[in-house]
Amino acid sequence: MKEFTDVEFMICQAARLLEDNKTVFVGWGMPQVVALLAERLYTPNITQVFEFGAIGPQSRTPFLRGTMGGPQNTYRSLQWCSMGLAFSYAQVGYIDYGMLGAAQIDKYGNINSTMIGDDYERPKVRFPGSGGGNEVASYCWKTIIVMNHEKRRFVERCDFITSPGHVIDGKTREEYGLPKGTGPWRVVTSKAMFDFDEDTKVMRLIAVREGLSVDDVVSDMGFEPVIADDIQVLEPPTDEELRILREEIDPYGLVIKK
Amino acid sequence: MEVLDRGDAEFHFVDPDDFREYVRDRKNRNWEDKLMDESEAVKKFVSDGDYLAYDFSSLTRGPQSLIREIIRQRKKYLWICAKFTLLESVLLAGAGCIDKIDVGFLGFGPYIARKVQNGEVKVYDWSNGSITYRLIAGAMGVPFIPARDLLGTDTFKKSGAMAVKDPFTGKPVALLPALNPDVAIIHVQEADIYGNARVYGPTVATLETAMASKKVIISAERIVETIEFRKEPNMTIIPYYLVDAVVHAPFGAYPGGTQGYYEMDSEHYLMLSSIREEEDMQRYLEEYIYSVDSHEEFLEKRVGMKKLKELIKKAQILEGYR
């Protein structure tokens, strides 16, 4: 078995989650590489949707970071449209999956990509903000969040809620007016995979990376997740997945070597 | 309508009737030649204190030659609308042109991060979708648009949005205030001398931004005959009567790229995004913007034909983009 990085591990786990003949709203960076890998290996008929207004492109590889709206990523789209329309496809219910990264996440799947600290005006760390993450998390039927597993990122409540999870400050997302039946669906980390408990909507551990224990995962979190009765093992990346990632999709290592 | 919650941030707002009157009285429907250079267009149509919107991104089809001209003319107190912004906000902040940024995605390099921390530039958080829907409301001539963006988030609390009880369903819904910028700057692949314009590739909010704005400056890689639009009217993104000025600007998106024409200059971009210190920023502005008189001089003396040819050659994916 080849050696692989945490990022490669997460990309492969997330790519295996998508279903063929569905639509996926793809966020910037790692989600783009996940979608490319899935399309190459598992879901050839998936329709990628980008906030720039590229619908169903057959994006060229190798992947180039930073040019999401450029010809590389929008090549042979089915439709070029506006951002308002791209988000409206999601708002009206056409987009099955959303895929996002996060700086911080809380036990209900609320996402922070805005700032760290308790003073919004004088943050300790300032991130770029929502981008289109709010819309992806608000409207897609099933949102997949891909992020590094570190204690400081898994918190009781996010310092700033940029994008909504299942329960926000004691109220359900539906009570805030968000569409019924949507929300975070899976959280893929460098150590584990989570879904959300049906009753409490708290993040639930369902699988751990091969070689790790449940304790290894939970001790690295700032809140207590629900633990599923039957914990699966996350199989490592296959040689085929790694070859396609390294040779065809990201030979420059822009994402996978981070 | 019952107001359930409201964000506490300041926001730019224009009464739709005031905007309509502006359109009636000040937008010219004459078929007249609007071709002018950057310097004249910015002098005529960008004023200190304006709320300024631009279309597309720092990396692709952004109006960078117009941004540099705004800096060259040392405009002040601008409030910019940035769905996503990387180098524009950094340069405009470095040059002291902006006070405020409405932001969806702010590529926070170390330089602008400090400007924000120091309070020299104020950031208002929205999201790409909510800013775009605000422009759509501005383009529809209505005071707000109902949507479900921002609901249940801290972004909502730090925005100018409102949540109300929808009179139809009885469920909560967000009201996003319309956005009518004073001026829009938009780079396109092709325009005619009257301002008809089209783009190849996704459009982000090209038409909405132009329609919602009081003044519109278009820069174009190519100036084409009007008959080109009449041959393929479904490709016309912006009709001439929205437009105040047309600037012929080959490489107008440099150091970003324009689909079908040239790729972004990654080296220049990396050099710019690695700037941390004030004196390095001022040196950059002096060398690349203040010390040249025009976009042409910038291309000739600071970029050079060798680099430009290289970037044209790198744009290998042409199919569908021109």
From TrEMBL, chain A:
It is an enzyme of class 2 (transferase). Its EC number is 2.8.3.12. It comes from the Archaea. GO terms for molecular function: glutaconate CoA-transferase activity. Signal peptide: none annotated. The lineage of its organism: Archaea, Methanobacteriati, Methanobacteriota, Archaeoglobi, Archaeoglobales. Gene3D superfamilies: Glutaconate Coenzyme A-transferase (3.40.1080.10). Keywords: Transferase. This is Acyl CoA:acetate/3-ketoacid CoA transferase, beta subunit. PANTHER family: ACETATE COA-TRANSFERASE YDIF, CHOLESTEROL RING-CLEAVING HYDROLASE IPDB SUBUNIT. InterPro entries: CoA_trans_fam_I, NagB/RpiA_transferase-like.
UniProtKB/TrEMBL annotation, chain B:
Its EC number is 2.8.3.12. It comes from the Archaea. It is an enzyme of class 2 (transferase). GO terms for molecular function: glutaconate CoA-transferase activity. InterPro entries: CoA_trans_fam_I (IPR004165), NagB/RpiA_transferase-like (IPR037171). The keyword Iron does not apply. Keywords: Transferase. The keyword Transcription does not apply. PANTHER family: ACETATE COA-TRANSFERASE YDIF (PTHR43293), CHOLESTEROL RING-CLEAVING HYDROLASE IPDB SUBUNIT (PTHR43293:SF3). This is Acyl CoA:acetate/3-ketoacid CoA transferase, alpha subunit. The lineage of its organism: Archaea, Methanobacteriati, Methanobacteriota, Archaeoglobi, Archaeoglobales.
